[in-house]
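Input record, target 12 of the design panel.
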């Protein structure tokens, strides 16, 4: 199972940007949960995050938030450490 989970849709531009940032940081495996194709997973996402928008990003069990939250964590210099701490997701 991937240590990075991305709740997404097939058309979300911010989801694509989040994936690109994670790939640039060396993430090779992302569990993509397509809430437009699996409505029950949307309910799961809302229960886990309290949010209705995508993307919703988890690194390990830690909820990062959306794309802008991911960028903020990266700018603060914490993203690489979070990825390393969750193990096995960076190459």
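The sequence produced for target 12 reads:
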């Amino acid at each position: 199972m991937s240590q990075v989970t991305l709740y997404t849709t097939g058309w979300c531009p911010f989801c694509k940007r989040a994936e690109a940032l994670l790939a640039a940081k060396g993430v090779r495996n992302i569990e993509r949960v397509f809430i437009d194709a699996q409505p029950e997973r949307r309910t799961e996402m809302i229960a886990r995050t309290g949010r209705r928008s995508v993307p919703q990003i988890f690194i390990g069990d830690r909820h990062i938030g959306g794309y802008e939250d991911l960028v903020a964590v990266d700018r603060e210099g914490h993203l690489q450490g979070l990825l390393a701490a969750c193990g096995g997701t960076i190459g």
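The two ends are 16 Å apart (CA to CA).
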